[in-house]
Amino acid sequence: MATNSPAAEMQPTLRHLQDETIGLTAPALYLAGAILILTAEQFENPLHAGLPAIVLLLLPLAIGQLRRISYLGAAWALVLGCVGAILALAVWQQEPALLCLLALPAGLAALFAGRAGGLLTVAAGSLLLFALPGAPILREVALVELWGTVGLIWLTLRPLLTTLQWSWSSYERSRTLLEQARDYQVQLKQSLADLAEANLQLTRLNRLTQALRQAAEEARRAKEEFVANVSHELRTPLNMVIGFSEMIIKAPQIYGAGIPDALLADLTVILRNSQHLSALIDDVLDLSQIEAGRMALTKERVGLPEIIEEAVTAVRPLYESKGLYLQVEVAPGLPSLFCDRTRIREVLLNLLSNAGRFTEQGGVRLRAWQEGNTLAVSVTDTGPGIAAKDKDRLFQPFQQLDGSIRRLHAGSGLGLAISKAFVELHGGHMDLESARGAGTTFTFRLPIDPPAPIPGGAARWLSPQWHYGEHIRQRAVGPHPVLRPRLVVLEQGDTLQRLVSRYLDDVEIAPVASLPEAFQELSRTPAQALLVNDPSVSQALQELDHATALPYGTPAIICSIPDIREATDHLGIADYLVKPISHEQLLGALDHLPMRGKTVLIVDDEPEALQLFQRILVTSGRGYRVLRAADGVQAMEIMRRERPAAVLLDLVMPEMDGFHLLEARRSDPALRDIPVIVTSALDPAGQPIVSRALGLTHGGGLSLPQLLTCIQALIGILGTPGQAGNPAPPQKSAG
């Protein structure tokens, strides 16, 4: 079917508008008739004015009736009525000048009857002007007005009609698009219904996983409880090993003369490996409390030959017991290595131990050399070798070789995976070369130097080697240098500084001790954030809110991380020593006490601990008198009877533990002033909950988008599934 043109489609609408406009001419006709009636006395014959006035007054009524029947009839009635009234006035009054008013009905004809009607009216008016007598000049003026009026109306209507046609076309196009949108909306509703059905199925699946999630949460809590309790279970016996080994090595005379040198050498190995195990336990506990997602490293400048010597000394008894040789070839003049001494030593111990366990004949050769900016270490054995198909899974956790090898050589399958992870954390890499029956060579390479630090202050942005050079071409896009985030850390101790530097890579830390000093540091050099470690988060927020020196746009993050000083203040003790405790730590803590006498009471349920601490005090040469108690009840009796100058107290004991003993001591005025040093395997800063509050303020305030973004980020970090409404049980602080 043919589509109508826009002009034909809009014709009914245009006709409707013209019909409404004809009705608007009634006031003008009434006004003209009223004027003629009021001025009838000025005419020679009042009927000459009255009859045209009556025609003008009755004309709106006639037009109203004709509009109901025919629009064109109403339009021509308006035109002819106006023409008749004008001609009657001109003829009866003998005023040819009134013929100029014929331009009005001609314009109405052009407006309401179209181009043909306007042209017909103009032609008829022109004939009347030539037929009626009158001055030629007036006839010419009337003709100009008649044709000019119709021409101006045509010129005016042309752009209006064009615009109307364009608007109508746009309307039709919009209506078509609306119909398409409605169709799309129907499709969208169907899609939403399908999505709702899929969401219902997903909800059902989520409900099915609730039991699994709950089991996983219970396993997580069990792991946290295990890690929290393993401190005491591991550190207490390890304290005995380290303490007695250190005592025998440093003061062998207390055991009598004649201790063989070989025994002292073996005890040195035991002490070194015990201290290594203690450091590893501390790292495991730290990682369990701070979910950093990666192993923490404590890097320093060390000599690689020294680390190799320690590892070789530790594993040499294994090789000697199996009759294997252990050759060490270290290139002379190796530079010092920036690494974590404990981690690299553990890598060497794992590689040498594995090589010694899997090698039955021959031996192992360890080589170390420099390759450019890296140091390389290889461990080559004469063992059975590794098949090519087993190389890919050798570095996977809990993966070993075939069953026969597993039966001959016990192990968890974690050593190589952990060693490879340690090397990669240092920015290095590890690989192996092996073939069945040809032995195995493990090689790892470590960078000698860390990434170049960025200087502080304004000098970080300047370089004396810069020179001006005009860019004559656009440079290719390349990697941009990465600037390390700079953090200003405000705290009285160094707990937060150690955590940030240990677990956040490539961060520049500016430590300060007071709020004015922090503001001065921020004004000197911009920083990404101000970190505040304060016991009262709310009070720190108030102080920052009242201060006006926080730079605009700089966030301030406040947390409360406990340290040893807080534990001592909370328990009312003089010091807090975490096992294993060295000879120097124990004597140094006693030196800082205001002791009145030399009597020291040791309270511990472990007989070995009592013996160890007693020997440390007796052999110190300071004249200490040592008293011992196995529980809190016995300790209270001794304290009331002997009034010791100091007390060494363990917290976890049967009967009356250390917490109840401290409470009883505070309630007794006679014992309240006796200084107490806690010697416990529970680390107050090593609890699963590091900080129980977190505050944030922002220089210049937070806008609504920033606030909403922060809320979404915190919900994404803290609002993990399974935790809301089912928190882990609170951990009792060891104090």
Sequence-ordered SSE layout with sheet pairings:
Layout: H1 6-23, H2 26-38, H3 46-69, H4 71-92, H5 103-112, H6 114-131, H7 136-208, H8 210-250, H9 261-289, E1 299-302, H10 304-322, E2 325-330, E3 337-340, H11 341-358, E4 363-371, E5 374-381, H12 391-394, H13 403-408, H14 415-425, E6 429-434, E7 440-447, E8 486-490, H15 495-503, E9 508-512, H16 515-524, E10 529-533, H17 537-546, E11 555-559, H18 564-571, E12 575-578, H19 583-591, E13 599-603, H20 607-618, E14 625-629, H21 632-642, E15 646-649, H22 658-667, E16 676-680, E17 694-698, H23 704-718
Parallel strand pairs: 2-4, 8-9, 8-10, 10-11, 12-16, 13-14, 13-15, 15-16
Antiparallel strand pairs: 1-3, 4-5, 5-7, 6-7, 11-17
Walk me through the structure.
The chain is α/β, with parallel strands linked by helices and 735 residues long. Among the domains are: 6-175, no CATH class; 299-447, Histidine kinase-like ATPase, C-terminal domain (Heat Shock Protein 90, 2-Layer Sandwich), CATH 3.30.565. 54% of the residues lie in helices and 13% in strands. It contains 23 helices and 17 strands. It has helices at 6-23, 26-38, 46-69, 71-92, 103-112, 114-131, 136-208, 210-250, 261-289, 304-322, 341-358, 391-394, 403-408, 415-425, 495-503, 515-524, 537-546, 564-571, 583-591, 607-618, 632-642, 658-667, 704-718; strands spanning 299-302, 325-330, 337-340, 363-371, 374-381, 429-434, 440-447, 486-490, 508-512, 529-533, 555-559, 575-578, 599-603, 625-629, 646-649, 676-680, 694-698. A 5-stranded mixed β-sheet has the order 2-4-5-7-6, with helices on one face. Strands 9-8-10-11-17 form a 5-stranded mixed β-sheet, with helices on both faces. A hairpin with a 2-residue loop joins strand 4 and strand 5. The chain is elongated.
